[in-house]
Design goal:
Helices cover about 25% and strands about 25% of the residues. The longest helix has 25 residues, at about 165-190. The protein is elongated and about 70 Å long. The strands form 4 sheets. It has a 7-stranded mixed β-sheet with strand order 5-2-1-6-7-9-10. Strands 12, 13, 14, 15, 16 and 17 form a 6-stranded antiparallel β-sheet that branches. The protein is α/β, with parallel strands linked by helices.
Length: about 325
């Protein structure tokens, strides 16, 4: 008979919740949950429970240390006598003494096909790059970032118009199912670890607001990938008649190459067509500074844009 594992879980955002719930519903035992401290969020900066905390409160002790590199935290972690640690988007790099606290070390649910896209923003980077496929890797946590040996992978296609939040939700569910399979294998002593090929590694740097500025000289497909890759945060943006404007949704359409990049080719209630370095981009949903999200029709109602106007100009 396979003995269930005692598990301590490290995670913070929505991506981690399916993995937490999968552990709770499995044969294994959740003995503690570690998540980031609650932070002010939203327009009014109200403090809310982190998603993982809300899901874990009824099932295990929840710890929210400001610092995890303290002897006090390590001692508390050791007191749970966990067999294994599971990490899913916790948000901090774990030091060696934390990694070593569980008897069998720690494993991680990472939202990419490692060694591609090690780092903080693997889903966003895959969408921005226009990748047709991504996936989840369950790997061992080691000191070097996302470079530990791999237990298992699962893949999923990325639709040409899918946004990063849609892809991430699907990966969260796929990762949770794969995690339970790996936990069962570790408990049974049948798990296999495959080293990563470091020569193939790429890095998925943290997303910044500045990356959202649209360069209209790029091909329409590249701009569209950035729009959907930076959704739902921080969003791609441009300037429309001097007004800072977020571009929330777009479509790649055929365009006349004779127009300068950033020029409005056609504006209708369905979309605002803008020339790019190659082809045209139809802007279907926008959000002007300090206002709500608007369809193209709503946006044009208060802004009579005309053919030939340039976006991105002051």
């Amino acid at each position: 008979m396979v003995t269930p594992l005692r598990i301590v879980f490290f995670g913070t955002p929505e991506f981690a919740v399916p993995s937490l719930q999968a552990i709770i519903q499995s044969r294994h035992t959740l003995v503690a949950t570690i998540t980031q401290p609650d932070r002010p969020r939203g327009r009014y900066q109200r403090v809310h429970n982190m998603p993982v905390k809300s899901s874990a409160l009824a099932w295990s002790p929840v710890l929210q240390p400001e610092k995890i590199r303290t002897p006090e935290f390590v001692a508390e972690l050791q007191s749970f006598e966990a067999d294994l640690g599971v990490v899913a988007a916790y948000g901090k790099i774990l030091p060696d003494d934390v990694i070593a606290a569980p008897r069998l070390g720690m494993i991680n649910v990472h939202a990419s096909l490692l060694p591609r896209y090690r780092g903080a923003a693997p889903v966003h980077r895959a969408v921005i790059a226009g990748d047709a496929e991504t996936g989840v890797t369950i790997m061992r946590v080691v000191r070097a970032l996302d470079s530990g040996p791999m237990f298992a992978k699962t893949t999923t296609p990325i639709g040409p118009d899918e946004t990063s939040d849609v892809v991430e939700r699907r990966l969260a569910e796929l990762g949770a199912a794969l995690l339970v399979q790996v936990l069962d294998q570790i408990a049974a002593g049948t798990a296999h670890e495959e080293p990563q090929d470091d020569s193939q590694a790429t890095y998925a740097a943290k997303i910044t607001k500045e990356e959202g500025l649209i360069d209209w000289a790029l091909p329409a497909r590249d701009i569209h990938n950035r729009v959907r890759g930076l959704y739902p945060w921080p969003h791609a943006y441009t300037t429309v008649a001097g007004e800072h404007t977020l571009v929330l949704r777009s479509e790649v359409v055929a365009g006349e190459e004779s127009h300068a990049p950033g020029t409005i080719v056609h504006a209708s209630r369905e979309a605002i067509h803008v020339a790019t370095g190659s082809g045209a981009l139809a802007l279907t949903e926008l959000k002007p500074g300090g206002r709500r999200a608007m369809t193209a029709r709503e946006f044009l109602a208060g802004r009579p844009l005309s053919t030939g106007m340039r976006l991105g100009s002051p």
